[in-house]
Amino acid sequence: MITKKFQGKVTAKLAALSAMSLLAFSAPLLAGSLDLSGRSDDDSQQDNGRKPAQVIDFVGVKKGDKVLDLLAGGGYYSELLSRVVGDKGAVTLQIPKAYLKYAEKSLEVRLANDRLENVTYLLSEAENLKLNENTYDSAFLVLGFHDMFFKEEGWNFTADEVIPQVLKSLKKGGKLLVIDHDAEDKSGIRDVKSLHRIDSAFVKTDLEKRGFKLIKTSKILENNNDDHSKLVFVPELRRKTDRFVMLFEKI
């Protein structure tokens, strides 16, 4: 005879198993489980310095997510994100025309023969990024935020124009990842053009004025041997700078 007490235990166990199954389906990537194979030699050589699995895990990207890769360059993160979000997810690889002279060849190879079926290539400018509202679970802005604080001939991609559009494109509670080369304390945007660096404290204050809140930071790309005084492209620092990693949430 099955007692009510026994039935209660079975029901509780089934509920727990159901919750575990749901968690397993929706859980974010665990660092180390990202498939890094089958990519270009250049991408693979960057992995040690960029720690992509840890970064993606830090953001909490999961299967089925829609992710914006803003100022994506040659698409290093776009390809990895496409693997994480899977067939039911989507990645938007966005660059302005000014990036083509640096990234066009890389993008041609990366996107050839529709090899990344869930990645949409978006060529758009600051005045109209062509982003749908309330669409993305997260946005990646890697090594590009500093470029939004200076103008020169052929380059005009300001935070004042861009960030409000990114904010609208994110779902409620959507995340914005910002990784950039750190600058001297209290330097603000002084070195954004000369050294391609931006003060992390300035980034926090600026984005929190624009509708975001900082929810966590990481030291995974920290380099204490970088004193923030040199151009980020000098040989001894290239791809090894001291970079801050910040995750913001749409308020």
Protein architecture, described:
The protein is α/β, with parallel strands linked by helices. The protein has a single domain, classed as Vaccinia Virus protein VP39 (Rossmann fold, 3-Layer(aba) Sandwich). The chain has helices at 4-26, 41-50, 52-59, 76-85, 100-110, 159-169, 200-208; strands spanning 66-70, 90-95, 119-123, 136-142, 170-181, 212-218, 243-250. The protein has a seven-stranded mixed β-sheet with strand order 3-2-1-4-5-7-6, sandwiched between helices. The radius of gyration is 20 Å and the shape is globular. The termini are far apart.
Helix content: 25-40%
Unreliable stretches (pLDDT < 50, length at least 5) are 9-26
Please give the order of strands in the largest beta sheet. Answer: 3-2-1-4-5-7-6
By CATH, the superfamily comes out as Vaccinia Virus protein VP39
Measured on Cα atoms, how large is the radius of gyration? 20 Å
Overall pLDDT confidence: 91
Question: What share of the residues does DSSP label as strand, in percent?
Answer: 15-25%
Descriptive key words:
alpha/beta; 251 residues; seven-stranded mixed beta sheet; Rossmann fold
Summarize the structure.
The chain has 7 helices and 7 strands; from the N terminus they run H-H-H-E-H-E-H-E-E-H-E-H-E-E. The protein is α/β, with parallel strands linked by helices and 251 residues long. Mean pLDDT is 91; it is low at 9-26.
Describe the protein's topology.
Layout: H1 4-26, H2 41-50, H3 52-59, E1 66-70, H4 76-85, E2 90-95, H5 100-110, E3 119-123, E4 136-142, H6 159-169, E5 170-181, H7 200-208, E6 212-218, E7 243-250
Parallel strand pairs: 1-2, 1-4, 2-3, 4-5
Antiparallel strand pairs: 5-7, 6-7
